[in-house]
Amino acid sequence: MSKKLVAYFSASGITAEKAKVLAQAAGADLYEIKPKVPYTAADIKWTNPLARCNKEWIKKTKPALADTDADIAAYDTIYLVFPIWYYTVPLIIKSFLEAYDFSGKKIAVFATSGGSDLKKATQHIQAALPNAQVVEGAMLNGVSNFDEYIDY
Ligand SMILES: Cc1cc2nc3c(=O)[nH]c(=O)nc-3n(C[C@H](O)[C@H](O)[C@H](O)COP(=O)(O)O)c2cc1C
Q: In this predicted model, what pLDDT tens digit does every residue of 76-108 receive, in sequence order?
């Protein structure tokens, strides 16, 4: 049986909830991708042009990670779970992808959003990880039964 990790980022809790249920359903370990400086509610108020999220996005500033303790080498499959930001992956996901060696791993991409789909994010992750097998999972907003997502 392949060894699985659910690695997730969540700024306001929606993705965290889904990631936890997915990990339990898939029999996967759980790891939270956290920024060194946590996002406050004001930081992610994207309707404010001066909010941290918008400043980071404009400058393409990848936030520093709180830790690089995920034992990626120990897993065959990594479920990567995050909220869609600006139609694609949040910059902290880029920080995470650059912090570890994902060569030969299977990366299953999952997200929550306000309506955007996974296509751009999945393409982005595959481009960032040419030596990994990246597969598009699903948007998790309306999902409560995770059975069809446990066999990656
Ligand atoms: C900075 C920022 C950018 C976002 N960009 C998008 C977007 O492009 N498309 C979309 O459908 N939702 C967008 N959202 C909404 C989030 O994807 C959505 O609310 C998500 O479920 C939040 O997950 P979380 O509670 O785990 O942080 C954005 C949210 C933030 C904070």
A: 999 999 999 999 999 999 999 999 999 999 999
First and final C-alpha spacing in the chain = 10
Contact 122, 138 (CB under 8 A): no
Residue from 81, 85, 89, 124 to probe ligand 1 pocket by mutation (most atoms less than 8 Å from CB): 85
Parent domain of 100: 4-36+66-149
| Burial annotation 30-57 (CB, 10 A radius, 16+ → b, else e) | bbebbbeeebeeebbeeeeeebbbbebe
Examine residue 31 and state whether it is found in any structural domain, yes or no.
yes
Q: What are phi and psi of 56, to 5 degrees?
A: -60, -40
pLDDT tens digit string along 22-65? 999 999 999 999 999 999 999 999 999 999 999 999 999 999 99
CATH number of the domain encompassing residue 91? 3.40.50.360
Q: Whose CA is nearest to atom 22 of ligand 1?
A: 83
Pocket of ligand 1 (CB under 6 A): 10-16, 44, 46, 53, 83-87, 112-116
